[in-house]
Structure prediction request, 297 residues.
Amino acid sequence: MGGATTTRPATDAGLPEYLATLGLPGIFDVHVHFMHPRVLAKVWAYFDAAGPKLGRPWPVRYRTSDEDRVATLRAMGVAHYSALSYAHKPGVATFMNAWCTEFAALHPESLHSATFYPEPEADSYVAEALEQGVEVFKAHVQVGEFSPDDPLLDPVWARLERHAVPIVLHAGSGPAPGRYTGVEPVRRVLARFPDLRLVIAHLGTPETRGFVELARAHAHVRLDTTMAFVDFWDDDPSFEVVDHLVDLQAKVLFGSDFPNIPYPYAHQVEALARLGLGDDWMRDVLWHNGARLFGRA
Prediction:
């Protein structure tokens, strides 16, 4: 593996200089959350109470207004980012999607994002979202407590496969396992819809090896780096697949989980740089792979 020659960024303020040394126009972050304020408040309340479940506190570092967080991303050199919401029960996806459409109109540097849930209306509102120009969907198996191969999602997967629209899918069992998390339900979906543009969030932690195998086996399955290799975890299984990430260089996308992270944004970049996979690998992960996938060069 080629060693990196560029100094690792130590602070958020140092990110623009680091990106300049790599010759990049910015960071393309595929895993950022902007949500309706009421929804985001509930997400933050979850993390505030997550300490006992995770065995450690989870302080949300960037707990500010939408506009302040947009300004923070710009100041750090994040040129494009998703605005992910995830439906956690029936009947809320359209409400979330309407808010995300308004956000995208105000912030053209963001990806027009949407979500869905296994419910009879899902195919209809996913079709409407696509007509409105949605560029990426988010689904969260653990929070939504649904199986990716729920029959109610069959028409959704078929439509998204036809339209070749990426889906950021949180299917791994981290940070806490769910009834339907893991590799096998996703494998069953891909057996029926092999051309889905899935982006497996968090490298699929902790089932990282299994999700790496899916990325190898399916041309359009990718992985995002969200919260992988950072110092927050005592035992991160992502380190077991570092060698595979070299071979999968073109399929690894940068993700951060901003704003819901318990450490500085720059630490995610630093954690990847210190793997020593080389500046070309960092260039692809931080910018080129996302720009190619979403046509946002």
In short: The longest strand covers residues 136-140. The first helix runs from residue 15 to 22. The chain has one domain: 12-290. The mean pLDDT is 95.
